[in-house]
Amino acid sequence: MPEQDSSRTRARDIDRAQTCGLLDAGYGEGQLDPAEYQARNAAAMKAKTLGELDALVSDLQIPEHLVEVTRPTAPAPAPRRQVPGRVVAAVAAAVLAVGGTLVVTTVGSDGASDIAAARQAPAPAQIPAGEPQPIAVEPIDPLTPDGVRDFVGQLGAKFGGDLRVDQVTFYSNYVFVTRMLTDQPHRKQDWSFRGGFATSGDPESRTLDTATVDLGALDVDRLADVIATGANQVGMPTGRVEHVFVRPDSGTEGLVTVQFEDDADRSGSVNTRLDGSVVDISHAEG
Questions:
Q1: Within 13-49, where are the H helices?
Q2: Among 169, 189, 194, which Cα is nearest to 179's?
Q3: Domain coordinates of the chain in residue numbers?
Q4: Mean pLDDT, contiguous 10-residue spans, the chain (286 residues)
Q5: In the 8-state DSSP scheme, what is residue 12?
Q6: What is the rounded distance in angstroms from the CA atom of residue 140 to the CA atom of residue 279?
Q7: Cα–Cα distance between 279 and 256 in angstroms, integer?
Q8: Rounded to the nearest 5°, which phi and psi values hold at 58?
Q9: Torsion from C-alpha of 175, 270, 163, 220, nearest 10 degrees
Q10: DSSP run (H or E) holding 164
């Protein structure tokens, strides 16, 4: 971030995404448990200022190679716990960028960064004569019908058509899912999905009678209706979807929670079954 930025500076989508990337790293190293990880990710996606984002990662130990990238001219890396959150958030773009290059300039002696980032596309590989040109695929928002279908399709492709999950949460730029390990129903694994699957942390124990949800039964068209009309139903005409949470309930059917929020920090939700039938509505609070 430029030196003149302060904790009150409004956060951008890229700042929120970069903070989520740091939380991924912290979770992968065991610094956060699953509940903390999901709560902080949700808070990062709702954060309005850089100060709010800083608070979510300020207690994390940052890997040394990230510290060194942010401080290229320093004689030695700063202690891991003392790296300002905004400095780390800026370098997280290097982790999140796919096929791009992050260019970092100098860092002032007061610890504030003077960073200029530029995504430089790599030189295209030569295509053999007669071969078709590659097709550029745009990222899909997981909170849209196409995004949900894309995730479900790739989930089936990765796990041999098995669409059962313990739970899954759709955010605007990634999906967080927990499911049993293939051929090891007594163990579960957390995964993050950003166009592809990556493990989050190590496998954990899981009871054999753990309830699951079959995403093959999810009516995506009915879910799209709830996403489109739910803000009005909860009393927030200008509200937007914060996340969609799918998990088993106490009965035999799955439960889908579509959470809404608005600029006044109010929140409300619509709970449905997998087929889209409404269970209950929590009206705006806050």
A1: 13-28, 34-46
A2: 189
A3: 1-121, 138-286
A4: 63 80 79 82 84 90 53 37 43 41 40 38 51 54 92 94 95 93 91 89 91 95 95 94 91 86 92 94 85
A5: P
A6: 28
A7: 9
A8: -65, -25
A9: -90
A10: strand 164-165
